Protein backbone atom coordinates (compact mmCIF):
# COMPACT_ATOMS: atom_id res chain seq x y z
CA UNK A 1 0.00 0.00 0.00
CA UNK A 2 1.34 3.45 -0.91
CA UNK A 3 2.25 5.63 2.05
CA UNK A 4 -0.19 8.47 2.47
CA UNK A 5 1.09 12.03 2.56
CA UNK A 6 0.42 13.78 5.84
CA UNK A 7 -0.87 17.31 5.36
CA UNK A 8 -1.26 18.44 8.97
CA UNK A 9 -1.19 17.12 12.52
CA UNK A 10 -3.07 18.82 15.34
CA UNK A 11 -3.62 17.99 18.98
CA UNK A 12 -6.47 15.55 18.33
CA UNK A 13 -6.42 14.76 14.60
CA UNK A 14 -4.17 14.12 11.63
CA UNK A 15 -5.05 15.15 8.06
CA UNK A 16 -3.85 13.13 5.11
CA UNK A 17 -4.08 13.77 1.40
CA UNK A 18 -7.40 12.44 0.10
CA UNK A 19 -8.07 10.07 -2.80
CA UNK A 20 -9.52 12.84 -5.00
CA UNK A 21 -8.48 16.47 -5.54
CA UNK A 22 -10.09 18.73 -2.99
CA UNK A 23 -10.48 15.97 -0.38
CA UNK A 24 -8.64 15.00 2.79
CA UNK A 25 -8.73 12.05 5.16
CA UNK A 26 -9.25 13.10 8.79
CA UNK A 27 -7.83 10.67 11.38
CA UNK A 28 -9.02 10.91 15.00
CA UNK A 29 -6.36 10.29 17.67
CA UNK A 30 -6.75 9.16 21.28
CA UNK A 31 -4.48 11.99 22.42
CA UNK A 32 -6.05 14.40 24.89
CA UNK A 33 -4.80 17.90 25.63
CA UNK A 34 -5.99 20.78 27.78
CA UNK A 35 -4.96 24.32 28.67
CA UNK A 36 -3.42 24.91 25.22
CA UNK A 37 -1.57 21.58 25.33
CA UNK A 38 0.06 22.27 28.70
CA UNK A 39 -1.66 19.13 29.97
CA UNK A 40 -1.37 16.01 27.83
CA UNK A 41 -2.66 12.47 28.10
CA UNK A 42 -4.60 9.71 26.37
CA UNK A 43 -8.24 8.68 26.53
CA UNK A 44 -8.52 5.10 25.28
CA UNK A 45 -10.88 4.84 22.32
CA UNK A 46 -11.59 8.58 22.18
CA UNK A 47 -10.73 8.80 18.50
CA UNK A 48 -13.18 6.05 17.58
CA UNK A 49 -15.99 7.61 19.60
CA UNK A 50 -15.35 11.15 18.35
CA UNK A 51 -15.31 9.89 14.77
CA UNK A 52 -18.70 8.24 15.23
CA UNK A 53 -20.27 11.11 17.17
CA UNK A 54 -18.99 13.77 14.76
CA UNK A 55 -20.18 11.73 11.76
CA UNK A 56 -23.63 11.44 13.33
CA UNK A 57 -23.92 15.14 14.15
CA UNK A 58 -22.57 16.37 10.80
CA UNK A 59 -24.90 14.04 8.91
CA UNK A 60 -27.90 15.38 10.83
CA UNK A 61 -26.76 18.98 10.27
CA UNK A 62 -26.51 18.28 6.54
CA UNK A 63 -30.13 17.11 6.63
CA UNK A 64 -31.25 20.52 7.94
CA UNK A 65 -29.21 22.40 5.34
CA UNK A 66 -26.07 23.30 7.29
CA UNK A 67 -23.13 23.03 4.84
CA UNK A 68 -20.20 21.02 6.25
CA UNK A 69 -16.90 19.54 5.10
CA UNK A 70 -18.01 15.99 5.98
CA UNK A 71 -18.38 13.53 3.09
CA UNK A 72 -18.46 10.08 4.72
CA UNK A 73 -16.88 7.96 7.43
CA UNK A 74 -14.25 5.57 6.04
CA UNK A 75 -13.52 3.35 9.05
CA UNK A 76 -13.30 3.40 12.83
CA UNK A 77 -10.96 6.37 13.04
CA UNK A 78 -11.12 8.10 9.67
CA UNK A 79 -13.53 10.14 7.62
CA UNK A 80 -13.36 11.66 4.16
CA UNK A 81 -13.78 15.43 4.19
CA UNK A 82 -13.68 18.34 1.79
CA UNK A 83 -10.49 20.35 1.84
CA UNK A 84 -11.20 23.86 3.07
CA UNK A 85 -9.28 27.04 3.80
CA UNK A 86 -9.71 27.27 7.56
CA UNK A 87 -10.81 30.62 8.95
CA UNK A 88 -8.33 31.23 11.82
CA UNK A 89 -11.09 31.85 14.35
CA UNK A 90 -12.52 29.48 16.95
CA UNK A 91 -16.19 30.21 17.52
CA UNK A 92 -17.45 29.42 21.02
CA UNK A 93 -21.20 29.28 21.63
CA UNK A 94 -22.31 29.51 25.26
CA UNK A 95 -25.70 28.66 26.76
CA UNK A 96 -24.67 28.16 30.39
CA UNK A 97 -21.83 29.82 32.34
CA UNK A 98 -18.83 27.49 32.66
CA UNK A 99 -15.08 27.34 32.17
CA UNK A 100 -13.30 30.54 31.22
CA UNK A 101 -16.52 32.59 31.16
CA UNK A 102 -17.16 31.83 34.82
CA UNK A 103 -13.56 32.66 35.70
CA UNK A 104 -13.43 35.89 33.70
CA UNK A 105 -16.69 37.35 34.91
CA UNK A 106 -17.12 35.69 38.30
CA UNK A 107 -20.37 34.01 37.31
CA UNK A 108 -21.16 30.81 39.15
CA UNK A 109 -20.65 27.77 36.94
CA UNK A 110 -23.98 26.30 35.88
CA UNK A 111 -25.81 29.65 35.71
CA UNK A 112 -28.14 29.67 32.70
CA UNK A 113 -27.35 32.66 30.53
CA UNK A 114 -30.18 35.10 29.70
CA UNK A 115 -29.26 34.69 26.04
CA UNK A 116 -26.82 32.67 23.98
CA UNK A 117 -23.37 34.25 23.71
CA UNK A 118 -21.02 33.85 20.74
CA UNK A 119 -17.32 34.48 21.38
CA UNK A 120 -14.38 34.51 18.96
CA UNK A 121 -10.83 33.36 19.63
CA UNK A 122 -7.81 33.78 17.34
CA UNK A 123 -6.35 30.35 16.53
CA UNK A 124 -2.72 30.62 17.64
CA UNK A 125 -1.32 28.12 20.15
CA UNK A 126 1.76 30.25 20.83
CA UNK A 127 -0.49 33.12 21.94
CA UNK A 128 -2.87 30.87 23.86
CA UNK A 129 -5.79 31.39 21.43
CA UNK A 130 -6.66 34.92 22.65
CA UNK A 131 -10.23 36.16 22.68
CA UNK A 132 -10.87 38.73 19.92
CA UNK A 133 -13.72 40.95 18.78
CA UNK A 134 -15.30 41.31 15.37
CA UNK A 135 -13.33 44.57 15.11
CA UNK A 136 -10.07 42.63 15.39
CA UNK A 137 -11.26 40.09 12.82
CA UNK A 138 -12.17 42.85 10.34
CA UNK A 139 -9.03 44.88 11.02
CA UNK A 140 -6.63 42.01 10.37
CA UNK A 141 -8.61 40.52 7.49
CA UNK A 142 -9.18 37.10 9.07
CA UNK A 143 -12.73 37.07 7.68
CA UNK A 144 -14.94 39.53 5.84
CA UNK A 145 -18.04 41.11 7.35
CA UNK A 146 -20.23 38.96 5.09
CA UNK A 147 -18.37 35.82 6.19
CA UNK A 148 -18.79 36.76 9.85
CA UNK A 149 -22.53 37.16 9.32
CA UNK A 150 -22.63 33.68 7.77
CA UNK A 151 -20.52 32.25 10.61
CA UNK A 152 -22.75 33.77 13.31
CA UNK A 153 -25.93 32.62 11.55
CA UNK A 154 -24.60 29.06 11.14
CA UNK A 155 -23.39 28.98 14.75
CA UNK A 156 -26.87 29.87 16.04
CA UNK A 157 -28.51 27.31 13.74
CA UNK A 158 -26.11 24.61 14.92
CA UNK A 159 -26.70 25.60 18.55
CA UNK A 160 -30.48 25.47 18.22
CA UNK A 161 -30.31 22.04 16.61
CA UNK A 162 -27.75 20.57 19.01
CA UNK A 163 -29.57 21.84 22.10
CA UNK A 164 -32.64 19.91 20.97
CA UNK A 165 -30.66 16.84 19.91
CA UNK A 166 -28.86 16.51 23.24
CA UNK A 167 -31.87 17.49 25.36
CA UNK A 168 -33.74 14.63 23.73
CA UNK A 169 -31.24 12.19 25.28
CA UNK A 170 -31.04 13.90 28.67
CA UNK A 171 -27.91 16.00 28.05
CA UNK A 172 -27.55 19.75 28.51
CA UNK A 173 -25.41 21.51 25.91
CA UNK A 174 -23.51 24.00 28.08
CA UNK A 175 -21.15 25.38 25.44
CA UNK A 176 -19.18 24.22 22.42
CA UNK A 177 -16.51 25.18 19.91
CA UNK A 178 -16.91 25.40 16.15
CA UNK A 179 -14.48 25.97 13.30
CA UNK A 180 -15.33 27.13 9.81
CA UNK A 181 -13.61 27.03 6.45
CA UNK A 182 -13.92 28.47 2.95
CA UNK A 183 -14.55 26.46 -0.16
CA UNK A 184 -13.97 28.18 -3.46
CA UNK A 185 -16.08 28.14 -6.60
CA UNK A 186 -13.90 30.07 -9.04
CA UNK A 187 -13.45 33.43 -7.25
CA UNK A 188 -16.38 32.99 -4.90
CA UNK A 189 -15.65 31.75 -1.38
CA UNK A 190 -18.36 30.08 0.67
CA UNK A 191 -18.31 29.40 4.42
CA UNK A 192 -18.95 25.84 5.62
CA UNK A 193 -18.66 24.08 8.97
CA UNK A 194 -15.38 22.19 9.46
CA UNK A 195 -13.34 20.30 12.09
CA UNK A 196 -15.53 18.12 14.38
CA UNK A 197 -18.35 18.21 16.93
CA UNK A 198 -17.71 15.81 19.79
CA UNK A 199 -17.24 15.72 23.59
CA UNK A 200 -13.73 17.07 22.94
CA UNK A 201 -15.16 20.46 21.96
CA UNK A 202 -18.51 20.47 23.77
CA UNK A 203 -19.41 20.80 27.43
CA UNK A 204 -22.12 18.21 27.97
CA UNK A 205 -23.83 17.76 31.36
CA UNK A 206 -26.37 15.19 32.41
CA UNK A 207 -29.65 17.11 32.74
CA UNK A 208 -30.60 15.45 36.03
CA UNK A 209 -27.28 15.17 37.88
CA UNK A 210 -25.12 17.84 36.13
CA UNK A 211 -22.45 15.15 35.81
CA UNK A 212 -19.85 16.17 33.23
CA UNK A 213 -19.78 13.99 30.11
CA UNK A 214 -16.97 15.67 28.16
CA UNK A 215 -13.28 16.59 28.17
CA UNK A 216 -13.68 18.52 31.43
CA UNK A 217 -13.29 15.13 33.10
CA UNK A 218 -9.73 15.12 31.74
CA UNK A 219 -9.08 18.83 32.37
CA UNK A 220 -10.16 18.57 36.01
CA UNK A 221 -8.76 15.11 36.80
CA UNK A 222 -12.24 13.71 37.46
CA UNK A 223 -11.48 10.34 35.87
CA UNK A 224 -13.93 8.24 33.86
CA UNK A 225 -13.23 10.08 30.62
CA UNK A 226 -13.66 7.07 28.32
CA UNK A 227 -16.86 6.04 30.10
CA UNK A 228 -18.30 9.55 29.73
CA UNK A 229 -17.59 9.63 25.98
CA UNK A 230 -19.09 6.15 25.65
CA UNK A 231 -22.22 7.27 27.48
CA UNK A 232 -22.71 10.19 25.08
CA UNK A 233 -22.37 7.81 22.13
CA UNK A 234 -24.72 5.33 23.80
CA UNK A 235 -27.42 7.92 24.38
CA UNK A 236 -27.17 9.05 20.76
CA UNK A 237 -27.78 5.45 19.69
CA UNK A 238 -24.26 4.93 18.37
CA UNK A 239 -23.08 2.45 21.01
CA UNK A 240 -25.81 -0.11 21.75
CA UNK A 241 -26.21 -1.39 25.31
CA UNK A 242 -24.16 -4.53 25.90
CA UNK A 243 -21.88 -4.01 22.93
CA UNK A 244 -18.28 -4.82 23.85
CA UNK A 245 -17.02 -1.26 24.29
CA UNK A 246 -17.84 -0.78 20.58
CA UNK A 247 -14.37 -1.98 19.58
CA UNK A 248 -12.70 1.18 20.81
CA UNK A 249 -9.16 -0.05 20.20
CA UNK A 250 -8.53 -1.80 16.89
CA UNK A 251 -5.27 -3.48 17.99
CA UNK A 252 -6.91 -4.96 21.09
CA UNK A 253 -9.88 -6.06 19.00
CA UNK A 254 -7.62 -7.87 16.52
CA UNK A 255 -5.74 -9.58 19.33
CA UNK A 256 -8.99 -10.80 20.88
CA UNK A 257 -10.02 -12.22 17.51
CA UNK A 258 -6.62 -13.85 17.03
CA UNK A 259 -5.66 -11.81 13.98
From TrEMBL:
Give the Enzyme Commission number.
Answer: 6.3.2.6
* Ranges where the SAICAR synthetase/ADE2 N-terminal domain occurs: 7-235
Broad class of enzyme this protein falls into: ligase
Q: Name one GO biological process term.
A: 'de novo' IMP biosynthetic process
Give GO MF terms, alphabetically. Answer: ATP binding; phosphoribosylaminoimidazolesuccinocarboxamide synthase activity
The protein's annotated catalytic reaction(s) are: 5-amino-1-(5-phospho-D-ribosyl)imidazole-4-carboxylate + L-aspartate + ATP = (2S)-2-[5-amino-1-(5-phospho-beta-D-ribosyl)imidazole-4-carboxamido]succinate + ADP + phosphate + 2 H(+)
Pfam families recorded:
SAICAR_synt (PF01259)
An example Gene Ontology CC term for this record: cytosol
Q: What pathway annotation does it carry?
A: Purine metabolism; IMP biosynthesis via de novo pathway; 5-amino-1-(5-phospho-D-ribosyl)imidazole-4-carboxamide from 5-amino-1-(5-phospho-D-ribosyl)imidazole-4-carboxylate: step 1/2
Identify the keywords attached in UniProt to this record, alphabetized: ATP-binding, Ligase, Nucleotide-binding, Purine biosynthesis
Q: Which NCBIfam families match?
A: purC (TIGR00081)
Note the PANTHER family from the entry.
Answer: MULTIFUNCTIONAL PROTEIN ADE2, SI:DKEY-6E2.2
For this chain, the family text in UniProt reads: Belongs to the SAICAR synthetase family.
Q: What is this protein called?
A: Phosphoribosylaminoimidazole-succinocarboxamide synthase
Amino acid sequence: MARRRQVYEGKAKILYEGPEPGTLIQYFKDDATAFNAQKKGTINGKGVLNNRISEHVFTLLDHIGVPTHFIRRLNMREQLIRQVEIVPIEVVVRNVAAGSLSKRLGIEEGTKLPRTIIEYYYKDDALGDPMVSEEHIACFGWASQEEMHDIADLAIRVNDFLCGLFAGVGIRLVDFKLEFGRVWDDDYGRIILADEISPDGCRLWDMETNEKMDKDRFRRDLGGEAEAYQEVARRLGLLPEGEDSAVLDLDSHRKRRGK
